Amino acid sequence: MALTTEQLPVLRAAIDAATDPAFVEARTNGQNTLMADWFNAASVPAFIVWKTKVSQDEIMQNGFDWVRVDNLSVGKARIWEWLFDNAEAAINPSKMNVRLGIDEVWKGTQSDLNVRAAVYAHCKRPATRGERLFATGAGSTETPGDLVYVGAIRDTDVGNAMQLEP
User: Fold this and answer.
1) pTM (2 decimals)?
2) Contact, 122 vs 63, CB < 8 A?
3) 3-state DSSP assignment of residue 13
4) Per the omega criterion (within 30 degrees of 0), is the bond before 45 cis?
């Protein structure tokens, strides 16, 4: 996905402000692909964000405590099923209502709270440097940020940003 015209000046400012020696060399030599690759590396320090898509399999096939599902009330079990009742069998934990659904299902006993923590572990990831430019929020493991732009910065994005007045 290409950056919007509103996002390009933000990228241009980040290009101009970067001081990493490898990035400065790439900028000096007009190597847009190398600059894009730099923006697509993990943000340092890490900026943790909510994922926008997590499959049911990713959550339930990786150390999930299946015993806890059997102990859910009918209402909680229904919520858990409905969260994934879509064509992709996935949730978007970046949406507050999805997180509220997870919180509603996995509350009460310490065992349920442990399942909630395990579910949330699958729902977070580090942002790239490029995504971090447009992300909002605290960006910590305890309070992940929200992504405004998801995906890779392309060499054409860098080229378009470089054409803007600094």
Assistant:
1) 0.92
2) no
3) helix
4) yes
